[in-house]
Amino acid sequence: MSRLYRPFRTLFGSSKIASRLQSGQTVRIERVKIKKGKPATRFIGTVFKGALIVQVLLWIIPPAPAPQDVDRDRQLVEDKRRTKARFIAFPFTTKVHPPQPYSGSSPEWREFQRIARDPEEQRNIEDRLARLVVSHALKAPNFAAKYGSEANSYRYWLDIDYPYKAPPVYERSGLLITDEVLAWATTRCDSWTVNMINHYLWPKPVALGFWAFGTEAVKQTGHKVAKFLGFASDDSSSSQTTRQPRPSQSPSIPSPPPLPSSPGPQVQKELQRIRQEATRRPEQVKDPSSLSSSAGTTPDPRSTPHDKAIGATDKPTLDQDNQKTPEQKPWLDTVVQSFSSSEPWKRFKETAARVRQFPRTDPARGSVLVTGLVGIDTPKANVVFDVIAWYDTKTKSYPPHSVRIYWRRTQHKPQRPLAK
């Protein structure tokens, strides 16, 4: 049927068409969704718009800080607060609190009990100290040149002691200056700071050295005054000021026979000739070897006057007694040399070196004391050291300032008899 004969669709045509349908037929109504294809330009535009929106949101909303950044900012704030608060300690305000004993429930005492029940831990503590002694010995000057560059601990005898009391606590008072308050406060300080302050405020080695210097100087001055007044002899002064060791003679070696009191005529004649030659000038002596040779000795025929003239120019200047003229030193060098060689200055150096001791720090709380002997095996000898050290149970190490090493003995491996 041609489309020309079909009725036109109107708003009211649906009811007429539905009335013409035959009864008994099933009507199916389906929904159809029509989609249009998106071009590539529309997809690119959507992506660009989304990226632009994300950038705007990131610029408006601040990002959440990272955990490490939060910790860093917190540390900076704390450091800034600490730098703002300044403490000015006043001298002579240091207080030392006596050591307090450990209690049975303290963590330090529990750590002591754990170490005492663990032999493996004790062996590790001793091995660490032995290796530390070997490293310190190799770093010592002249040790490698004397015993060899290779060393290891072959044996050690060490004991571990557990202290009953904690180290003392030090406190200082002074002014605390902050942005909010200016007040008098008391803070704790370490033992190294206190020992260094006492070392410089009370220089015991220098004071004792000056005391020894003054004592010796007063003794010498008093002896000189007594000598000037005639109450002291030269023998006593020489024995007091300069003590020279006398050579000890063996009883088995006989002493030489004494010289004759009056020489014979031949000896007197020879001495007279030597005196006459000695009083003459050097240029008048034709043969200088005649002073030490006998009268019958003939001069060397190979020597010529030209050689003697050349040799005469090389002779040093002599005074009237045929002795070399001493060179004059500057007065400052003379004063320094006489002062450095004086007996009071020697007493000062000996006393200061004997009393001088570098300030040490107290061990940390919870440290154990390790003492004993450590033997080191070297290619040339076996060396034994006395060791005193504090082992920190918290850091599992020996602090450098808490280790003391002393030489005990040396046993050389190649031993030969001294007498042939």
Automatic annotation (TrEMBL):
Residues 270-286, 316-327 have a biased composition (Basic and acidic residues). Residues 253-263 have a biased composition (Pro residues). Residues 236-252 have a biased composition (Low complexity). Residues 287-301 have a biased composition (Polar residues). Residues 233-330 are annotated as: Disordered. It comes from the Eukaryota. This is Uncharacterized protein. It comes from Parathielavia hyrcaniae. The lineage of its organism: Eukaryota, Fungi, Dikarya, Ascomycota, Pezizomycotina.
